[in-house]
Structures are given as C-alpha cells and as structure tokens.
Amino acid sequence: MISDPQVLDFIAATEAAYPAEANGAGPDDNRRHYDAMCAVFRGPRPDGLQVADHNIGGVRCRVYGAETPVFVLYLHGGGFVVGGLDSHDDVCADIADATGLQVIAVDYRLAPEHRWPAQLDDARAVWRALSRPGIVVGDSAGGALTAALCLSERGRHAPLGQVLIYPGLGGDGHAPSYTENAEAPLLRSVDILTYHRLLHGERPVTDPLARPLQVADLSCLPPAFIVTADIDPLRDDGRDYAARLRKAGNTVHLRNEAELPHGYLRARRSSDRARRSFQAVIAKIATLAALDPP
C-alpha cells in the first residue's frame, strides 16, 4: 500500500510517459517509451564534473570524473532489454559527485538482439580491463548483473564490494512478493516473465550465473549492500539472496524501503523516501571504497 503523496506523484509521472503496456510492446517501442520516461526525470550533471565516453575492454562506457584509486562500475537496469548510458546518466553523475570516486557506466548489449550471457560477457570484459580496486553497483537487471559479475570474478580480481538495488536474482516466483505485488505500479510479475523470455528465449536456463539465487555455493563473495523496494514483486529476491549470502559467511546489509516501488531511484529529487535511500547507497559506496584492497 502506497500512501505517500510524493511517491504517488512519482508513479503518476512515470506512467504518463511509460505506460504499463509498454513492457509488453516490441523492444523498439518499449525502448522509445522508456527513454522518454527517463528524460522526464533526468537531472543536470553537477557543475565541473568531467564526463567522457570511452571504449574499455571492447565495450562502450561512460566515465564520470578523473581516475581515483578505487572506482565504481555501474550496471544499469531495464530488464536487459531497455536502458543505456543516457537512461542512468544522472544517477552515475550524482554518485561520482557525492562520493568523489570515478564512476564507469557500462553500455552492455541488450536482449533480444543479444541473449544471455552477452550482458555478463560485456560487464566482465570491462571489469577485467581495469586493474585497480573497484566496487560494482547495479539496479534491477543491473543488480542481477552485479551479483553475477561478483560470482564470476570470485578468486580473480574480485570487487571490494557489491551494491544491489531492487535486484531480480532469479527467484522461482513462489516468494510472497511475487503474489502480494503482482500488480505493483511500475513493475508487475507478468513484466518479469516477459523480460525473461526476451533475455533467454524459450530454452531452459542452465547457466547458474543467470540466476544468482540458484547458485549452490555463495561463499567468499565481496561485502554486499542489498536495497529492496517493498512494493515490488522482486522484493523477496533481495531478501532471500541476503539470507543465503549470510549463511555462506559473507558480510551483507539488507535495507527494505517501505512504500517505494521498483525504479524509485528516479524519484530521489522529488521523494524524501527515495532521497534517503539514495543517500544510504552513497554512504555504503563510500564505506566500501575505504576497504583495504585484497
């Protein structure tokens, strides 16, 4: 139940540009609606922030700020179908400005033109091209990609930490949030199934990295900060992943945001709840950056 008027205004503004049926449209139409919606909320970059596009590891990236000893790798959301460097440009700029860390956003390939694991391959290529310590941050699909990257790089050049914001982690759909929030604003359970089919086709998903919740061994992973939206079918994916990470001996902090829906990062300028959540993300990134490199 959402009663916060600021959140309700955010939902109305989002749906005006990005109606629920856009999730079921063809990829081109979906992207057009999504980009238009993101443009409504996109804020200006902080004054003086250096921003440039580069090719890193063969993948187009956008770099915010000068090089710092620890960097932030940002993996955007959008169901692996929509989104890109522009959709999350102001989020990345704000993280760079608030933390003083260089932020590198990855323009990974999208489905259905590129099926899994193309997205992980791109994120991994960028990560492996960067030799200094870093933190991986992602929202929604980017949160799943963050978890997969940390699993993939375990025992190699592992991240200092991972920040997962309302992630979809391959839950089986039986957790309470999938039914309680089946018709939640901004993301419905049926939308999750639609994006899943576009990413994987009709074939069975056999790669455990595509569903981090299904990975048998979750030991020896970087410290995790997992933020969930309470009014979101994916809420319990984050809760369950946090529980499994703790059981495997990892450091993890779980934060659930009451009355906030999926995608609320875009409301951080207009909603006090969203602003406080984003400030918590910023604080955690700064804390993780202070960790000694492995």
TrEMBL record:
A molecular function GO annotation: hydrolase activity
Domain of life: Bacteria
The keyword Hydrolase appears for this protein: yes
Pfam family, one: Abhydrolase_3
Record keywords, A-Z: Hydrolase, Plasmid
Residue span, Alpha/beta hydrolase fold-3 domain: 72-265
Matching InterPro entries: AB_hydrolase_3, AB_hydrolase_fold, GDXG_lipolytic_enzyme
Protein name as catalogued: Alpha/beta hydrolase
Annotated source species: Paracoccus methylovorus
